[in-house]
Amino acid sequence: MARKKKSRIKTTVSTIIATVFTSIADIFKSPVLISWVLAVAGLVTLTAMSIPKLRATRISAAEITVTFNAPPIWIDNSLLVELKNIARAHLSQTTVGRDGLIETANAIEQSGWFTNVHQVKWISDKEASIDATFLTPYAKVKDLKGEVFIDSHGKRLPTRTGSIVNQKYHFITLINPSHNRPQKAGTSWNGDDVLDSLKVLHLIYDKSWLTQIQKIDLSEWGSSGYMTFVTNTPSRLIWGSAPNQERQLEALAKEKITRLNWLHTNFGKIDKGIAAEFDLTDFAQVTMK
Q: Which residues pair with 175 in a beta bridge?
């Protein structure tokens, strides 16, 4: 009796196994299922091919290529190289991975040249790209420590030994500000005199005669609220108050610009090429002192 029971169990198991394999074989006879299997396999293969092969060891900074996405046209190449070297130094300290990218992004942001570092990513095991927004120089300010760039909102840029901007670009220098530069790059300059001068620059920045102006003198701002242009002749043109803050009987900013346009058109120079002092504030006309 025991032998018969064992034989029956063996027969039953064999029957189940055979049924399972028969069912699997029937399933794979389906063309729809085969198509799905091949499609999934293809996607897995393509995904694997699209991911750069990550290295597990560190390499020297010299072996890493770093690029900035759409770097600004004003930046001097030596500064761009310096920022790339900062990134290389940090990327070479770790293997390819998230930690190294985060450390690199933090180091670049702390350099003070950016308003935001959006992303640092590996393109391959030896190449990385950086997407970041630079602080854009808009003017220079000369204080007791020398000259420093500011952006269009009055935030100061870092300083460095060597050029910051390409020499073909013209930047007006604000002189005799009421306050010295802020300690930290990316911080706004104290003093409404600097902000008022930026308001004037916003109005004249696209004028063809802008490059004739070398400086804006703020020495009289504290007593009268007036600003004075210093040209490359040199001459002085008293601009007066900030736009929309004109005093009684003072010519409006729009009228001052019309007068400067006329001088440039008729004389080729907003100061007529004469080393003198001109007053743009008179309600009736430009006067020469």
A: 142, 217
